[in-house]
Amino acid sequence: MIEKLFIVLIVVLAVVAVAQIIRLSKVSSVLSKKREEDFSPIANKVNSNLMIYFMVFMFAFLIWHMVAFDDVLLPVAASEHGVKVDNLLNFNWWIIFTVFFVVNFLLFFFARRYRYDPNRKAYYLAHNNTLELIWTIIPSIVLVVIIIWGLLTWIDITDEPGEDALVIELYAKQFDWTARYSGIDNTLGDVNFTLITAENPLGIITADGIEVKLKELDEEIEKAEMSIRNEVLPESRVKELEDRIGMRRRQKSKVLNYRDSGRDFQTAYDDVLVKGEMHIPVGKEVNFQIRARDVIHSAFMPHFRAQMNAVPGMNTQFTFTPTITTDSMRVIVEDANFNFILLCNKVCGSAHFNMQMDIIVDSEADYAKWIAEQKTFVPAEPVRAELKEKVEVEGTIAVN
Q1: Residue 339: which of 353, 360, 356, 354 has the closest Cα?
Q2: Half-sphere exposure of 148 (CA within 13 A, CB side)
Q3: What pLDDT, on the 0 to 100 scale, is given for residue 381?
């Protein structure tokens, strides 16, 4: 306690001392009849030279910073459109650095060159139309170039995927990713949130899944009704159970509509679900269909310069063609443990940092072997046999 009071006393005394020094300085100026704007030529020269020294230090520090931390920047883009994104970004950086160095050089140079001189009178310039046009038209032209280039790049990278593009769904929920491959038919099975269960976390629609969900809903409705009939419950609890029964009956009606629609849900049978690590083939256009279950997430793949929001209740998509395999990138970055990565770029909750998945870019042959080893959503032997036959006979990627 005594130590804290002693520290407070020292701080108070220091403030009082500084205040007294400032006061004495003002009194001294008044007695010597010295104006506030009057200062010695030596002080003027020192301050103007310090402007140049600080400018040199600032430029040197910036350049050193860029060189010293170059290794923590993203490596070369690993997708076709990523190169275009980098070119656009680098163009912006060149403009920013040029303006930064030119403007700051002129700022400090003029502060040094036109420091106060009692024998020189400043030139008064109220307005200059030529200068106004220069610093209005030139930035406008530069901005128009950036905007048009940016729009053309965005249109190019968000264009519709080709018919042969590999279709993969990225499903986000707090706090992980699931990748769903479209299987042999390259068509993702239909989904609906009403069919989400512990065994079917993505709500993929299948005939068997519909029956399982109907049974689950019937059991929940019956359990709630029995509680109302056989237990003595407060009105608030009864109201809660009645609301739940109504909600489950409405959900059951939707599921029955799926069952009675006569639609063929077999396109989902050969879908493949993976977690933790996903594989994509190099040189193959990949179309990512992106969904979210709970809150807004964002599928961010920095090495491919790809990002798209995952929004509950709607589908978004992003397409790119990987150009560098994982093995090749490990050589480029000189890191044997390097992996491409999928991250969530929205702060989606307390465990947001857990939302990541490794992405392995394989050669066509390695990808074909990997996908053939994965379990299909419906583990039917005909599906497995057809998939293996496609790999063995055609020797190509088993996605079309």
Answers
A1: 360
A2: 6
A3: 54
Task: Provide the whole-model pTM.
Answer: 0.75
pLDDT in tens, 10-60: 888 888 888 888 777 776 666 666 665 666 777 788 888 999 999 999 999
Count of all residues that appear for the chain in the document: 400
Q: What band does 166 get if pLDDT is binned at 50, 70 and 90?
A: very high
Contact indicator for 383, 376 with CB cutoff of 8 Å: yes
Q: Report the candidate in 155, 79, 82 with the shortest Cα–Cα distance to residue 321.
A: 79
Nearest to 358 by CA among 235, 273, 249, 276: 276
What per-residue string of b and e applies to 307-325 under the rule 16 or more CB within 10 Å gives b?
A: ebbbbeeeebbbbbbbbbb
Identify the residue whose tokens are 């809903």. Answer: 217
Residue 115 confidence (pLDDT) above 50? yes
Alpha carbon 380 to its chain centroid, in Å, reads 38
* Residues 6+ positions from 343 with CB-CB distance below 8 Å: 300, 301, 302, 355, 356
284 within 8 A of 166, measured Cβ to Cβ? yes
* Half-sphere exposure of residue 149: CA atoms within 13 angstroms, side-chain side: 15
pLDDT digit string (tens) for 63-98?
A: 999 999 988 889 999 999 999 999 999 999 999 999
Q: Find tokens 């200062």 and name the residue.
A: 39
Q: Which of 357, 355, 371, 340 is nearest to 79 (CA)?
A: 340
